[in-house]
Amino acid sequence: MIYEPLFKLERTGVQIHYYTSVKKYNPVHWHSAIELIYILNGQGMIMIEGKYYPVVAGEFVVIDSNQLHEFRYMGASMSVVIHFSRSSMKNFIPNLEEYHFRCTRADLKKEQLAAYLEVCELLKKLPPLYVMHPTGYKLKSQAVAMEVFFELVNQFAVQGEVLQKTAKQEDLGRLEEIIEYIELHHKEQISLEEIASHFYLSREYFSRFFRKNLGVTFSRYVNQVRLMHIYQEICNTQSGIMELAEKHGFTNYKMFHKMFREIYGCTPREVRQDQKEA
């Protein structure tokens, strides 16, 4: 599912994930959690609210709740991703809804550099804990993550007015339904007229609404979702590539290969060969 509910997060408050990937692409999505992405090696490109930021090893990026974002790893990479539940963190900071988070290396102010490097040092402690698995490593990992969040609140958050239910939040609610529908039906040939009608909208309004909020056309987004599923199956099954393209809704094979190379920087066969060698 492209929209991320992160159900387990609401029970634990903090989720830490470790990713190793030859190439990885996440189409535009959002979630209520505050997200931190720390690049261990390799490089990537992240889009936050329509603006693109390159990221390289040793850097981290913070994405606030309900911000539309997209991430693409360039080649082999490793990363640590931490999600912080706003509702759980309010147990420690009752007025957390007043804080708005944003941190990228490109937007870093001179006076924030020391704090940024301090957070990087904290994040470096997580991979050895994960690899060595000492007794209680999850406890220590959570403690490190909480210390990171303390620094984010005090160094990389802006305190402002309490967020009210805005028009944008209402739009996100509608987008959630639309994106879930696409995820469920991406294997089918979904026309713009069909999906607009399903949500009781005109074709023209739906098209404008979708592009304005997600930054891509409806048809391109559907194909991005298809490619994400195809990539996963190329890596994890032995099914034929054309078979997978058809299974996930591609009928134009020339477009399939063109978009695949554009997004992943290689051909489907090269991905499979990389997986075999790995």
Task: Characterize the structure shown.
The chain contains twelve helices and eight strands. A hairpin with a 2-residue loop joins β3 and β4. The chain is α+β, with helices and mostly antiparallel strands and 278 residues long. Strands 1, 2, 3, 4, 5 and 6 form a six-stranded antiparallel beta sheet that branches. The protein has a two-stranded antiparallel ribbon with strand order 7-8. α3 runs antiparallel to α5 and α4 runs antiparallel to α5.
Task: Produce the secondary structure layout.
Layout: H1 9-12, E1 14-21, E2 24-29, E3 34-48, E4 51-56, E5 60-63, E6 69-84, H2 86-89, E7 99-101, H3 113-123, H4 126-132, H5 137-155, E8 157-159, H6 167-185, H7 192-198, H8 203-214, H9 218-236, H10 241-247, H11 253-264, H12 268-277
Antiparallel strand pairs: 1-6, 2-6, 3-4, 3-5, 3-6, 7-8
Helix pairs in contact: 3-5, 4-5, 7-8
What is the count of helical runs?
12
Hey, roughly how much beta strand do the residues contain? 15-25%
Biggest sheet record: 6 strands, antiparallel
**Broad shape:** globular
User: Gyration radius, to the nearest Å?
Assistant: 20 Å
Low-pLDDT windows of residues: 1-7
Please give the oligomerization state of what you see: single chain
Number of strands: 8
SSE class: alpha+beta
Helix percentage range: 40-55%
Order of helices and strands: HEEEEEEHEHHHEHHHHHHH
Mean pLDDT: 87
Query: How widely separated are the two ends?
Result: 27 Å
Key words describing this protein structure:
278 residues; 6-stranded antiparallel sheet; two-stranded antiparallel ribbon; 8 strands
